[in-house]
Amino acid sequence: MKPPPFGYRAPATVTEALDALAAEPSGKVLAGGQSLIPLLNMRLAAPAELVDINRVAELDTLHVRDEGVRAGALARLARVERSAEAAAVQPLLGQALRHVAHPVIRNRGTVVGSLAHADPAAELPAVLAVLGGTVEAASARGRRTIRAAEFFRGPMEPALEPGELAVSAFFPASPPRTGTAFTETARRHGDYALAGVAAVVTLDEDLRVSAARAGYLGIAATPLVLDLTGAAGPHGDWRAAAAHVRERIDPETDIHAGAGYRRHLTGVLTERAFKSAAAEALRRAGE
Amino acid sequence: MEESFEVGLTVNGTHRTASVPARRLLSDLLRHDLGLTGTHVGCEHGVCGCCTVLLDGDPVRSCLMFAVTAAGHEVTTVEGLADEDGTPSPVQRAFRECHGLQCGFCTPGFLCTVTALLRETPRPTEDQVLEGISGNLCRCTGYQNIVKSVHRAADILAEES
């Protein structure tokens, strides 16, 4: 099908974009469009106006610092995926991005757009949540920083107010002796995952597990973060951690998988991801 | 009356213009406004990959982009892959040689995707080929000959470089 009619603005600067959003608060931001345009084509969405930010050059940024990776609102998924600098500072980003749709979609889709879409089955919200990252939002009234824990309010519901534009997202760097891993299971390659997990393990100087955190997608209305440090213990009993996760979660049944299957799968993926993340932490501790 | 926008872009090396509403998809601009019907439209929501074209050299879904957003950019469609004298490109020749197509509906998307894949990864592994074409659906071939075509195209490109 074809999209319904909409008003169209193509600002060249952030200031112009914020003015456009202030003038039409029900306006929808168009960045990569890889989630929004399917919704428009299927007429599941009919915004009065689209504010196309693709010409706002100042949002096409990817800043990698010792503290972390900051992706501007026009940083395409493929660009971040291919950035060796970003992978060195926060490897979980690239590990997760390889699971986002297909390579061709990643050429257009953006990191910030995926976060602002707030699909609970998407990979990047779980990554931002488990890392404790932030989203920077701007409006004609000013700027604010929103923590991941507050950003995802519900399915497809980010904590962005009318007139606000998500201008960047910040993913904190991996601390020393830290390993990460991402794994998910989908019916078909590139489809939305039935369940997925982003695992982060940090070891202390005696190589005991000092922190084990998991971010889950596909099993709750928003990305779910669980602290598994206690469940796994200092020696990393990942089977025990997986058993703990199975008890803690409450997935739903849908046409793709039953709740029981999702619960079982989430345990399996947890164990797999943490084994891999712990091995990576050990390797980095030895460097 | 819906507002029209003047869109100018380079398609297969030629500057083209059209006056279109903001909701005109790039795929429809190419097919309906510019008459380039080589780009096929299958699902129109980004799943099938038939409408894949090259935008500034990178493969993108033309059904998931508005023509107004593409203004000022360079688009290459399947019509622009062959040499100027009409000689099919190495990827096109490989698909013909290896029977990488049957009905041909998905082929323009595969050709654009594979052209870009081999530019970035001239000698892809089997896994890289499968990952590279994972966003393109074919209902005829069972993919075996398409995978063969990609490896054959890599050979031809290496021979001719």
From TrEMBL, chain A:
InterPro entries tied to this protein:
CO_DH_flav_C, CO_DH_flav_C_dom_sf, Diverse_Substr_Oxidored, FAD-bd_PCMH, FAD-bd_PCMH-like_sf, FAD-bd_PCMH_sub1, FAD-bd_PCMH_sub2, Mopterin_DH_FAD-bd
Query: What's the protein name?
Result: Xanthine dehydrogenase family protein subunit M
Q: Which UniProt keywords apply?
A: FAD, Flavoprotein, Oxidoreductase
Which species is listed as the source?
Actinomadura soli
SUPFAM superfamilies membership: CO dehydrogenase flavoprotein C-terminal domain-like, FAD-binding/transporter-associated domain-like
Q: Which PROSITE patterns match?
A: FAD_PCMH
Q: Residues in domain FAD-binding PCMH-type?
A: 1-176
Supply one GO molecular-function term.
oxidoreductase activity
TrEMBL record, chain B:
Q: Which domain of life is it from?
A: Bacteria
Listed GO molecular functions? 2 iron, 2 sulfur cluster binding; metal ion binding; oxidoreductase activity
Q: Where are the transmembrane segments?
A: none
Taxonomic lineage of this organism? Answer: Bacteria, Bacillati, Actinomycetota, Actinomycetes, Streptosporangiales
* UniProt KW keywords: 2Fe-2S, Iron, Iron-sulfur, Metal-binding, Oxidoreductase
Which pathway does it operate in? Alkaloid degradation; nicotine degradation
Does this entry carry the keyword Kinase?
A: no
Under the heading SUPFAM superfamilies, the entry gives: 2Fe-2S ferredoxin-like, CO dehydrogenase ISP C-domain like
Task: Give the CDD domains listed for this entry.
Answer: fer2
What name appears for this protein in its UniProt entry? Answer: (2Fe-2S)-binding protein
Q: Domain 2Fe-2S ferredoxin-type: where? A: 5-81
